[in-house]
Amino acid sequence: MTHKLIRIQRVSEPVPAHSRPVMISVAGDSAAGKTTLTKGLAQVIGLERVAVIGVDDYHRYDRQERKGLPFTALHPDCNYVDIMEQHLQLLATGQPILKPVYDHGSGRLTRPELIEPKEFVIVEGLLPLHTRLARACFDVTIYLDPPENIRRQWKIDRDTQGRGYTADQVVDELRRREQESAAFIRPQRRFADIIIRFSPVTGREDPPNTPLSAELVLRPTIRHPDLTKILVASEPRAIHLKLGRDEDGRPVDTLHIHGYVPQEESQVVKKAIWTLLGIDSGDPPGILGDLGEGRSEPLAITQLLLLYQLMAAAEPASAGRLLPGGP
Amino acid sequence: MTHKLIRIQRVSEPVPAHSRPVMISVAGDSAAGKTTLTKGLAQVIGLERVAVIGVDDYHRYDRQERKGLPFTALHPDCNYVDIMEQHLQLLATGQPILKPVYDHGSGRLTRPELIEPKEFVIVEGLLPLHTRLARACFDVTIYLDPPENIRRQWKIDRDTQGRGYTADQVVDELRRREQESAAFIRPQRRFADIIIRFSPVTGREDPPNTPLSAELVLRPTIRHPDLTKILVASEPRAIHLKLGRDEDGRPVDTLHIHGYVPQEESQVVKKAIWTLLGIDSGDPPGILGDLGEGRSEPLAITQLLLLYQLMAAAEPASAGRLLPGGP
User: Which of A198, B82, B303, B323 is 20 to 30 Å from B206 at the Cα level?
Assistant: First the structure.
C-alpha cells in the first residue's frame, strides 16, 4: 500500500525551509518557574512571532479521572506522549496543529485550539524532553532546576492562589508526586543544553527582596556566546564563569549571576550579549528580567542568553537581523 | 534547517506496511444517509477492527458562534480543513490522532478523543472529498446522492427528534445552506468511485413500507466485481446493470436494485458477491441491510459491494481471508 503514501506526497505542498520554526523547550517540574522565564522572552521577540505551547495540555485524564488512578499527572501514562511527539514533529516541520487544552483552573479538558506555526515555538511543561523523538524536534533544550524547598513554596503559593487548592492539598500532592518526579521529570535534566537554577546564595545574608541568584550550566552541546571575553573585559564581581564537570563528569561552563549584582555591572554584560546578537544600537529591552512584581538582573541575563540561542538557530550567520531594532 | 527533519526521521519508528489502514470515505450532504450506510458495514467487519471518523467534528466554530457568521457549517471556512487533511494523512500512514469532538446534541466543541489506527477507517461527513490531499488518503470514495426532497424529509425527521430543533428551524436552515451545498458539497460527487442514490422508483405504486430502491453509479476508477456474470446467471428481474455515460460523459455502469426485490432474488446476488470475497461457506451476515426498523435488500447489496472494495484494498490477492468466517 505504498501507493497511498506516494499519492499523499505527490499532492502535498512542499514546506519551504524558512517556514520551519525555531523550537526551544523549557522542561521542569510543576512550579519550577517555566512561565516566568518564557514570558519575557516571548515579549522581546514579539508575541505575533512566537507560539507558546504548554505540553501539560496533553493530559490523558482530567482532574476528576486522575483521582482514581495509581499515578499522578507527572507519569507518562497520564499523558498522550505519542500525540505530543506527533504535534512537536508537525510544528517542527512548519505545520499547524489542533492542540488539546487542559484548563488548570477547572482541571478539565476542553475544546482544542488551533496553533499555527510561527517563527519561534516555545514548548514548556513537565515532559517535553521525555522521549528521543520529542527531543529531536528542538533546537535548544532548557531544564529548570530550582532547589526543591524553593519550588515547593512556589507551588504552594501558586496553587492556593490560582488553582483552588488548600496548602495541605498541595503538600499532599507534592508527596504523592515525589516518586514520579524522580523517575520521569528530573531525568530530563541530562538532555538539556542549558540547566537553570534560581536560588538564594548559601551563606549570604542579603536584604529582603533581593532577587534570587541564577546558576546556569552551559553544556557544550550547543554553541554558547564566548562569555570569557565579556567577563574579562568588564571585570564583574557578582557575575562569574567557572569551568567544571557536570554531575555526569562531562565538561561544562557554569555561569553564576548573583541576585545583588549592581545594575551597572549587569548592564555591561547584557549590552555585550545584545551586541553579539548583531544589534549595535539601543539597549536590551526593559521587559527582560521582569518578575511581575519587581525585576531580576539574573533573570534578564538568563533570558538574553536564551534569546541569543534562538536567534542563532534561526539564522546562524546574522542572528540579530531577525530582532526588531536589529540592523 | 533540514538537520532537524533528518534528526526526526532518524529517531522515528518505521511504520510497517501492514499497519496502514484501508480508508474509505462516505461524503454527502446533511442527513443523506451516511450513518445508516456505514453502520452495517462496520458491524460486519467487526467494530474492533474499524475506526469510524465523522469529519463534521472538524467544525471551526460551535453552534453559538456560527449564528454570527455569514456562512453555515457546510462552508470550508467553517471547518479546520487543513487539520482534517493532516489527520487523514496521519491515519492513512498508520498513526494515531487526537480528534476534535463536535457534540451534535449540544452544538458545542468538547474534549478531543484518541483514535488509534485500525485495519479499516471509515470517514464520513460533509467535506471529506473537498481537497485533493484529503482525496489522496482514501482507497475507496463514496458519495451519497439522495433526491433532494427525500433528504429534506430525513433531515427534518432527524434534527427535530435528536438535535433539539423545530421543523421550521430545519427548513430555514436548509434554505440558508442551499447555496453552500451547491458550491461545496455536491461537487464532491465527481470524485467518488461509487455514487449511491436511494429513492422510490418513479411511476411505481409500491405498497407502503417498501424499502427505497438503490441506484449505484459504479465508476471505473476502481475495479468493481464483474456483475454481468452474476446477473446473467441468476436472471433477476428487480436488479439491473446498465452501461451508460455519467453527467460528465464518462462511461459508467449503473446498478439498479428495486426496493420490491424478492428476498430469494436478492439472496442469489448477495451470495455471489459473498463468494467473490473468497468466502465459500455461510451466508452473508443478516446485519447487512438493517434499517433499525425493518430492513432493505438494496441497502444490503450496496453494503456488500462496499465490503468487497474494502477487502480488495486490504489484500488484493485474497480478500476474503480478512473477514471473520473466511477460509
Answer: B303
